[in-house]
Amino acid sequence: MEIARKFLLSGFPDLPELERAEVFQGYLGISPEVRIRSKRVGEAETYRLCFKGEGSLVREEIELDLDKATFESLKKLLPKRDLRARWLWVLALALTAVKLGLCSFQLIVASPDLSPIDDTLMFNLAKSISAGNWLGEYDWLTLGKHSFYALWLAFLNLLHVNIVVGGQALFAVSCLVLLAALKPVMRTNWGRLFVFAVTLYTPASWAENTLRVYRDNIYPSLVLLALAGLLGAFTRFREKPLRALPYYVAAGLSLAAAWLCHEDNALLLPFVLCAAAVYLAYLFLDKSIAHKKSRLALLLVPLALWGGGIAAWCGMNYKYYGRFIISDFTSSEFNDAMGALSRAYPDDQKRYELIPLSTRLALYEVSPTFAKLQDVLETPEMYNGYGDPETGELNSGGIHWVLRKAAWTAGYYDTAQDAENFWRAVADEINAACDAGLVPAGRRHSGVFSPIKAEYVAPTIGKFFDEVKVFVLFEQTEPTQILSIARPDQTEEWESYLHCQSTIAAQANTDLPYFAPLNQIAYKLLNLVTWVQRILLWPMLLLTVLWLVRYAPACVRGLKKKQPPADLAGSVLMLGFFLTGLLRMAAIAYLLAVTLSFDLYLMYLSAACAPMLAFLAYGTAKWFEGHALSASPYSLK
């Protein structure tokens, strides 16, 4: 019988040395624990085989004597020596340096006149920040998007850092945080290095869409950093509370930045809430966890950074524009107005036609405020830019932009307050008409996208499988972009501010971009890595499934005995990485099936790619760890 106790000493007692021994021991199994040990004292050497049963402070222990020949035979069965922690980080940093070096040869696409509400908007906002004018003079685009990326561009400009290298460095930091976060969860450093390498070299991280001057250059990095930070914080419930503090800081800062960078961050909330629930369950149900009050207090750190970052951004908008909001695209009044417009005449709605022409003409009759847009909205110019000039239908993917542009043209975006009052009046008038029965209407709602209908399910499923194809085949991951279209003065301005080169023509009067020989070598190496990932994905899928099939029953047995696997919390959170990616894919599939009428673009899925690959690499490493150590998942000790 083994009875384990721990005692905290104020100092090491001053005792004489009675015996000096040289000990070697190795583990043939973890559950049950099977250990061999040799002990040399002087010229005498003993060999022992030990079996330990299940338990925590008290458990069954059986020891048997071995002869040297049997010990040496068993010693050959020990798993190979693991990678040292120092070499783990040396190799991780070396892999990071290689990737940064390869990606430094990538060229951006700079076409200012072709992307007024995307790349050009972010560029202009960044220049305003650098000039000390926050987001610049107010108009319909100033607060049109969550624009943290503009602040990022201004930051890189201040440091004179190439924006491609800066984006890759941020992604590498996210992967390094994941590498550190996995320490309590994985048994071997080789396994952690494998997960890191697969995630770091995600082809989507250098894909063509990352070479635009747009927020999806960094948004996947922020998402991965948030997930990795929470993983590291929530799996260190057996370490000193302050050991988790860096991960809480990383999670809080990255959640704030991600929230300010994109409008669809509600997709991150299920992971945040479920991860917190897993952590709290361990905290309250496991009586052996110490310092519970301190651990609960630490939960305030990411919440404070998350909320504080958002509040600071809103405060800047209030200072300059009088609105305490992130953007007026996601403001309550604009979403209410869009909800009211899409509420009317629900039977006339079609895929990609949220507010048909017939609906708009009818609503002009019941909303005097909305009617003020008719002369500027119903024009060939607006139809040509955001819809079909022949039918007058406006595409659902651009309807909110054309409405804002029309309101600006009509003079309702002189100030942020003017825009707020205009959209509030539109929402109130149309909702009143719907409630009074003046127009056919569905239920009242708020939001810029199409309400969910049963007829949209089939096309959504179809789009989802299109996404799966793009994901598993690593499509659209070329490390090059198309030819930039810009005047010489525009090119000089963009390249000077962004500290990088843009694509140029290989031959005059052609659209073939030119790449120097060193660039081409770097691109071929990145494409080679993409092919390795294409091949590696399938065995990773298989081994992850095999690991789950074996691991799930072991978890159930452990939970029944109130001895769950030690890596259960971490494995659940890593599964959350994968499910978060699937949730994003499902949401984007719906948008592509109902709202966005163009072809699938990897940019919309890029935030899902790295977390999903990280989980597959984790499952693969876990399978190998289980077989290499010849043990099932080990129990909490």
The averaged pLDDT comes out at 90
> What is the helix/strand order?
EEEEEEHHHHHHHHHHHHHHHHHHHHHHH
The major beta sheet can be summarized as: 4 strands, antiparallel
Question: How far is the N terminus from the C terminus?
Answer: 16 Å
Beta strand count: 6
Uncertain regions spanning at least 5 consecutive residues = 630-637
Tell me the structural class.
Answer: mainly alpha
Assign an overall shape: elongated
Question: What amount of the residues lies in strands?
Answer: 5-15%
- Cα-atom Rg, whole angstroms? 29 Å
Number of helices: 23
**Helical residues, percent:** 55-70%
Which sequence of strands runs across the widest sheet? Answer: 2-3-4-6
Features:
637 residues, disordered C terminus, two-stranded antiparallel ribbon, 23 helices, four-stranded antiparallel sheet, 6% strand, mainly alpha
Task: Describe the protein's architecture and organization.
The structure is a single chain. With 637 residues, the protein is mostly helical. 55% of the residues lie in helices and 6% in strands. Strand 3 and strand 4 form a beta hairpin. It has a 4-stranded antiparallel β-sheet, with helices on one face. It has a two-stranded antiparallel sheet with strand order 1-5. It is elongated, with a radius of gyration of 29 Å. It contains 23 helices and 6 strands.
